[in-house]
């Protein structure tokens, strides 16, 4: 017996996370290299203006993952990041840990007088 797994498309995932319409999402998806992505500016605008605060709080970590943790296309959030984001438990977010490790690493670089990120 085989089971058909319905994997949502990039558009559907973005619609789910952002709460925006299919038309809004489709107008902002770009092709970069071998994958699709959405410009950071589009997500930033949502974080600042979305009427639903819970959606703002969903878009913000997606942006952090896409820009800082898993950057692929400069200034864009990649499709792969939305795959990861959809799989994460919404009640548990690694952002505080990521930010703490980043802060510690930058502090260690500064103390050591080195200019590279660990």
Automatic annotation (TrEMBL):
InterPro entries: DUF7745. It holds the Pfam family DUF7745. Residues 12-116 form the DUF7745 domain. It comes from the Eukaryota. This is DUF7745 domain-containing protein. It comes from Gossypium laxum. The lineage of its organism: Eukaryota, Viridiplantae, Streptophyta, Embryophyta, Tracheophyta.
């Amino acid at each position: 017996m085989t089971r058909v797994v319905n994997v949502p498309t990039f558009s559907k995932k973005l619609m789910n996370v952002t709460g925006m319409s299919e038309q809004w999402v489709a107008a902002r998806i770009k092709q970069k290299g071998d994958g699709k992505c959405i410009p950071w500016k589009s997500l930033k605008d949502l974080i600042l203006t979305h009427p639903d605060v819970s959606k703002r709080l969903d878009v913000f970590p997606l942006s952090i993952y896409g820009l800082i943790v898993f950057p692929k296309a400069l200034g864009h959030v990649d499709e792969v990041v939305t795959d990861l984001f959809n799989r994460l438990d919404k009640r548990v977010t690694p952002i505080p840990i990521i930010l703490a490790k980043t802060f510690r690493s930058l502090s260690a670089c500064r103390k050591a007088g080195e200019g590279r990120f660990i």
